[in-house]
Amino acid sequence: MTEPAEAEERRARLAANLAEVEDRIAAACRAAGRERSEVTLIAVTKTYPASDVRLLAELGVRHVGENRDQEAGPKAAECAGLPLTWHFVGQLQTNKARSVVGYADVVHSVDRLRLVAALGREAVRAGREVTCLVQVALDDDPERGGTPPVEVPAVAEAVARTEGLTLGGVMAVAPLGEDPAKAFARLAEVARSLRADHPDAKIISAGMSGDLAEAVASGATHLRIGTALLGRRKPFVR
């Protein structure tokens, strides 16, 4: 198959997947008594090429998520000029803060004070304002990142008072093996408590391909959708 034909086939596949995801989000919003406009779709394009990002942008996607800096940085550079908001959604080491701040508009995985300080320092250096979400740990698995709910206020307050950063809200991943509806209900409580002190921290980033309906039902404002849009992940080669 020639390259133009391959590109057209890929565009058609992405368009079909996007339509299906949009139908699922619309149905979830109807079931929850919410407007579709209340929910932002983030296309998580990890392991997929910049060409897919360009195709998604052509199809109307405006938010793109990545979880590995070594992949995200070059991809964002290759897609510079497209009308996209870039979200960093993976666990983040402090030594990657400078690189991530260079392209990410929103960092979803802020879970400790040292990371807040590093992001703020690099945002000021770069002359950027970066929105940060406090990642909430809904289980005890350290591999998945996040700060315990009891520590969320301290991390949030640090973000709010750090130059170069804006507190956007919270993010979480549903624990493996648990009913996502129950997990996202706990996240909604954390979010409500946070808004009592920070009324503008309205973002709730929750829900992926398999549990988007439960996330919407619990008030998610941002969905991080990868597999349902782009297909099964390709292995990541370091």
TrEMBL record:
Provide the cofactor list for this protein: pyridoxal 5'-phosphate
Could you cite one Gene Ontology molecular function of this protein? pyridoxal phosphate binding
Stored CDD domains: PLPDE_III_YBL036c_like
Per the record, residues carrying N6-(pyridoxal phosphate)lysine are: K46
Asked whether the keyword Protein biosynthesis is assigned, the reply is no
Pfam families in the record? Ala_racemase_N (PF01168)
**Residue ranges annotated for the Alanine racemase N-terminal domain, each copy included:** 19-232
Which PROSITE patterns is this protein grouped with?
Answer: UPF0001
Matching InterPro entries:
Ala_racemase_N, PLP-binding_barrel, PyrdxlP_homeostasis
Tell me if Lyase is a UniProt keyword of this record.
no
Write out the entry's keywords from A to Z: Pyridoxal phosphate
Protein function:
Pyridoxal 5'-phosphate (PLP)-binding protein, which is involved in PLP homeostasis.
Q: Which HAMAP family match?
A: PLP_homeostasis (MF_02087)
Question: Can you tell me which family this protein belongs to?
Answer: Belongs to the pyridoxal phosphate-binding protein YggS/PROSC family.
Name of the protein this chain belongs to: Pyridoxal phosphate homeostasis protein
Q: Which organism is it from?
A: Thermocatellispora tengchongensis
